[in-house]
Design goal:
Strand content: under 5%
Distance between the termini: 20 Å
Radius of gyration: 15 Å
Number of helices: 3
Largest sheet: none
Shape: elongated
Helix content: 55-70%
Number of strands: 0
Number of domains: 1
Oligomer: single chain
Length: about 70
């Protein structure tokens, strides 16, 4: 099966994937105990929280509904 996407469609998918990444980081930051995190994990959590504060997220439920999952 071959699927051809236009440039706008690829850009849209990339934006959705980035939003999903942010949602996963948000969930991870809620679940991980900062006391048991490595310095790298703490930095990643900090970056994710800053992105969330900036409003850089996507609604996971809406994303799943859009793609029929």
């Amino acid at each position: 099966m071959v699927v051809t996407l236009g440039e706008d469609q690829v850009k849209h998918v990339v934006e959705k994937l980035e939003g999903l990444r942010l949602e996963l980081l948000k969930l991870r930051s809620m679940l991980l105990s900062e006391e048991n995190s490595t310095p790298e994990e703490l930095e990643e959590i900090s970056r994710a929280r800053e992105e969330i504060r900036k409003g850089e997220s996507v609604d996971l439920k809406a994303l799943l509904e859009e793609f029929g999952e």
